[in-house]
Design goal:
The structure holds 2 protein chains of 2 kinds. By secondary structure, chain A is an all-beta fold. Chain A is about 0% helix and about 60% strand. Classes of the chains: A mainly beta, B mainly beta. The interface between A and B is medium-sized, with 22 and 25 residues.
Chain lengths: ~110, ~120
């Protein structure tokens, strides 16, 4: 079964720290992987999309890496800010068009 | 440009009633998806439309759920004889499907509460 797992479920760090969010998936034959953030009561905002042929993508203070052989992706957030507080979701697309989501990591950045 | 829009933003209904949820995708996007987000189940796929192809309905939880996409644009998700377990946030997404170009963009969702 194709599954996506995110650990930890919640993370709290002081402002200014660099941090890493983890995502693992069970089948390495992915089409792409997408990271989202979700603010309370809101929809999903796409952060980064990594195609299966890519190793990483960067956008501002965010960097996402992909290691298909080990079934893992990480989202690196540099110099964290209180505005980064949100739930971060990892989603994987395999052969079908649908995204399979992890349960998310709820991130709190403390001023 | 405008993002994905959904209406209504909130819907409260009584058990047994039918509801319709609407999604307006990003203009020019060929693919449209419906997902459901509930406390116990996380985010789960419901149905997918791509151009004029037959939709992928593999995620619909029961035959009370149906969806259509008119004119390759607007989509309506219909839930008949609603049950309390249908309470969730229903999210719509769209993408311009092509080789290497299929990032999904999500709407704000419709929060459905079945009393």
């Amino acid at each position: 079964k194709q599954e996506v797992t995110q650990i930890p479920a919640a993370l709290s760090v002081p402002e200014g720290e660099n941090l890493v969010l983890n995502c693992s998936f069970t089948d390495s034959a992915i089409y792409n992987l997408q990271w989202f953030r979700q603010d309370p009561g809101k929809g999903l905002t796409s952060l980064l999309l990594i195609q299966s042929s890519q190793r990483e993508q960067t956008s501002g203070r965010l960097n996402a890496s992909l290691d298909k052989s080990s079934g893992r992706s990480t989202l690196y957030i540099a110099a964290s800010q209180p505005g980064d507080s949100a739930t971060y979701l990892c989603a994987v697309k395999w052969g079908a068009q649908k995204l399979v989501f992890g349960q998310g990591t709820r991130l709190t950045i403390n001023p | 440009g405008a993002g994905v829009s959904q209406s209504p933003s909130n819907k409260v209904t009584e058990k047994g009633k039918d509801v319709e949820l609407r999604c307006d995708p990003i203009s020019g996007h060929t693919a449209l998806y419906w997902y459901r987000q509930s406390l116990g189940q996380g985010l789960e796929f419901l149905i997918y439309f791509q151009g004029n192809s037959a939709p992928d309905k593999s995620g619909l939880p029961s035959d009370r759920f149906s969806a259509e996409r008119t004119g390759g644009s607007v989509s309506t998700l219909t839930i008949q004889r609603t049950q309390q377990e249908d309470s969730a946030v229903y999210l719509c997404a769209s993408s311009y499907w092509g080789i290497g170009v299929d990032e999904q963009f999500f709407g704000p969702g419709t929060r459905l509460t079945v009393l």
